[in-house]
Amino acid sequence: MYPVTEGKESSLNGEKNFYLDVHDFGTQKVTPQDVAAAHQKDLAVEGKYGVNFINYWVNGGMVVCLSQAPDSSAVINTHREAHGLIPQHIMQVKPGEK
Description:
- The chain is globular, with a radius of gyration of 13 Å.
- Strand 2 (52-59) and strand 3 form a beta hairpin.
- The protein has a four-stranded antiparallel β-sheet, with helices on one face.
- Helix 1 packs across helix 2 (72-82).
- It is built from two helices and four strands; from the N terminus they run E-H-E-E-H-E.
- It has helices spanning 32-49, 72-82; strands spanning 18-24, 52-59, 62-68, 89-93.
- The protein is an alpha+beta fold.
């Protein structure tokens, strides 16, 4: 479990596929400012691949992104073009009930 702080998340779109992707930078600390800058680059490219980045979380050297996309390769291609930081893991997830 990780503590979560408030932030503005993007609205959902009609895409039914949700993905969590994990960037693990190991012992290298990642600042929220660094991640916010990379996220802005993702947002500038996401439409090209049909991706909708909803939110992200930072914990030490780990960054987790939640998105909607046609498939996992669209998420990877968006990250690759936006800033070159390819996730180590990506998994399809299903939203839970509230």
